[in-house]
Each structure stands twice: as C-alpha cells, then as structure tokens.
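Re: beginner question about structure tokens

> Can someone show what the tokenized structure looks like for a real chain? I only ever see the sequence side.

Sure, here's an example I had lying around. Input first:
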Amino acid sequence: MQKLMLKVRNLSDAVEFVYTQQDRMINVKIIKILAHIGLHPQAI
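And the corresponding structure tokens:
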C-alpha cells in the first residue's frame, strides 16, 4: 500500500483529487491504468 501511495503522490493533482474523493477500488484501477501506460507528471 505504501508503494501505491508513493505512486499517487507522483501523479497529477487531478488524479490525486480523484484518488481521495472516489471509491478505493476505482482508485486502484486508475493507478494501475496510468502505471500501465507509463503516465508520469512530466507527460501530463
């Protein structure tokens, strides 16, 4: 879970907002999708 939280901190503020506001299962899917496509703050 710590690793997931670190990933979240590295994502955009918008995704962080989604992470904090939406259901945890949805958050995990978003994080996995973003990680899968290699999305980083520099690419946003």
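Each token stands for a local structural state, so reading them left to right follows the chain. Residues 2-37 form one domain.
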